[in-house]
Structure formats: C-alpha cells, structure tokens
Amino acid sequence: xxxxxxxxxxxxxxxxxxxxxxxxxxxxxxxxxxxxxxxxxxxxxxxxxxxxxxxxxxxxxxxxxxxxxxxxxxxxxxxxxxxxxxxxxxxxxxxxxxxxxxxxxxxxxxxxxxxxxxxxxxxxxxxxxxxxxxxxxxxxxxxxxxxxxxxxxxxxxxxxxxxxxxxxxxxxxxxxxxxxxxxxxxxxxxxxxxxxxxxxxxxxxxxxxxxxxxxxxxxxxxxxxx
Amino acid sequence: xxxxxxxxxxxxxxxxxxxxxxxxxxxxxxxxxxxxxxxxxxxxxxxxxxxxxxxxxxxxxxxxxxxxxxxxxxxxxxxxxxxxxxxxxxxxxxxxxxxxxxxxxxxxxxxxxxxxxxxxxxxxxxxxxxxxxxxxxxxxxxxxxxxxxxxxxxxxxxxxxxxxxxxxxxxxxxxx
Lengths: 226, 176
Fold this sequence. Notes:
The complex is a heterodimer of chains A (226) and B (176).
Chain A: H1 2-12, H2 25-31, H3 35-58, H4 68-90, H5 92-98, H6 109-117, H7 124-154, E1 156-157, E2 160-161, H8 175-193, H9 221-224
Antiparallel strand pairs in A: 1-2
Helix pairs in contact in A: 1-7, 3-4, 3-5, 3-6, 3-7, 4-5, 4-6, 7-8
Chain B: H1 3-53, E1 60-62, H2 67-70, E2 74-78, E3 84-91, E4 96-103, E5 109-115, H3 130-133, H4 153-173
Antiparallel strand pairs in B: 1-2, 2-3, 3-4, 4-5
C-alpha cells in the first residue's frame, strides 16, 4: 500500500506531468482561463488516463512490441470518444467550454507518455494509481493556474464577481499571462521540493525517454536489442 | 506456418483488429445511450431560442416548405399567431453561423439570435453581440441597410445573409 501511495504522490509532486515532466502544456495554457473549464478538463483527462493506463496494462502481454503505439492510440481514442459523448449528453456546459481540447486529449502527451513509460511495464494496480496520480497532478496545476488567472484576469471566481469590473488585468487571461503563471507555478513547485541545502533534481532516466535513442539502458533492453 | 512467422506477421494484425473491434463495439453501445439524450438537449435548446426571438409565442409548429431552395434550415409558425421563426445556417469565418430570426405577422423582425460560437472570440463573435443584433430589429423586407462590421466581415456577413434568407423565406411562406 505504501508503494501505491508513493506512485500516487509521485504524479502529484515529484513527477508532476505538467510542471516537472513538462507534458500537456498546450491544453494547460489554453484551458486554465476559467476554474470550471479547468476542473472539467482535469477530470476528463484523469478519467482517460486511469482508463487507458488500466486497459493498456491489462493488454501489455498481448500487444506485440512492433504495433504498440497504434494499439495505445486506439485504446486512448476510444476512452476520449466515450468521455466526449457522455459530456455532451449530460454536462453540455462543460462540453462547450472545453471545445476542441476535449477531442485533442487523444494526442495529449501525458496519456500516451504514461502508456509508454509506465503502463506497459507495470501491473494493473500500479498503473491505476499512476494514472490517478498523474491525472490529479494535472488537475491541481490547471485548477490552481485557473484560480489565479480567472481572479486576476477576469475578476471572477467560478463565474462570481470578486474584483469589481474595470480593475482586472486582462493580459493574464491571454497566452502571455498563461506563460507567466506557468513559470511561476513551476518555480514554486521546484522550490517546494528543494530539500534543505540540496537542490531538487527530477529523476527522469530512460523511463521518461521516448525510446528513440540508442543508449544502453537496463529498463529498455528488450526493445533496444531488437 | 511456423511459430516465428505467426508471431511477427499475423499476431500484430490480429491484436490490432481485435482491439479496434472491441473499442468500436463499446463506443457503439455508449452512443446508443447518449445519442437520444444529445438529440433531446439540442431540440430543447432550439425551442428555447425560438421562444427568445418571438416573445409572446405559445406553441410552435413546423411549416412544411421547400427549405432548400429558400436557403434556410427550418421555418416554424406560432400557433397563437404571433408570427414566424426562421432559422438559417450561413458560412462564417471558421464554421457555420446559425441565425434564428423572429418575424411578426407584418414581416417585421422582432427578435434575432446569432450563434457565433464557431467564430473567433472577441473578433467575429461581435457579430452575435447585442449591439449588432439590435440593428436588425424592426427591419422588414431586406437587411441591406445594415452594414457589416469592419474587422469581422465574414462573421457579420453570415449574420446578414442569414437574416436576408429568413426574410425571403418569410415572403414565401406568409399566409400559409
């Protein structure tokens, strides 16, 4: 159980997909304008991540190495389409606010990245917690950024006006403001992870690699050898 | 067929086809549940738009006419006699702009709704804003007197064309 907790918190802090692995930034920057949209996107991505991680982990012995990427894409696209249909039917407002970014979860690097880095070589249980942790890590970042951007940029929170009209800083809702918030969030997380007197260094070895290098790596010998 | 040939040639093929079939079946099942709900939501939203552009309407019934040659999507008539609601779809800058026009019995525009959700926020979306919409209210016969918005020409032209098509359709169906 301790190991599972470690996998879960890994996704939230030490290997946060957005701030440490720097994956899925496109949707993070675009959606973190409103808190509700961010929350919807985060939960949709978490669902897809958990689902695809579990499915791919279940199928990991069956899927031949040569065609693993197409298989992952089919599984991920299936989950995304499922979420899309359910959201359109039952949560139309969230569906509308996510727009094009909902179908684009299919090509979100976090989902494919976790399938390739984690789910295809770990057990179903571990993959479930990895997906959950990564999804929650993403949701936390996107909602956190959205709170700051919506409050300062639009003067509202969840649609309720907090700062009177005319005092908001519009640029925060634009793309440059998104980058500012992104950089600040990244700096804050890394500062928080620094141990006394020792700088935090992300431990991303060959696990975090896309697999196109020819480096000798014990983890990946089975693919590189072929 | 030896084992190695099966492993390298046929197994990948079978696995991928298998995964695709399973995923497709699951999605078809989900679609069969969600499709009616989505259609119902859409019909309700359309009904709400019709109510909003023709105040005082009681119940709508669809007017059967040759919508294709009139260039509109649908024509509804208020059973209470408040007028007609005509919906037209025109090409905007990036996608379709749906224009819903409420016309009273004398042919005057009493309400207008333009769905500009496909247009650029803050630029093309101005064509759906109340400032632009208000210019059409009270017109009858043609929409030529309203100018397009500079900087949002495509989007505002779509709205204008939609209104023009709706007014033309009204002429064709009035009294029907």
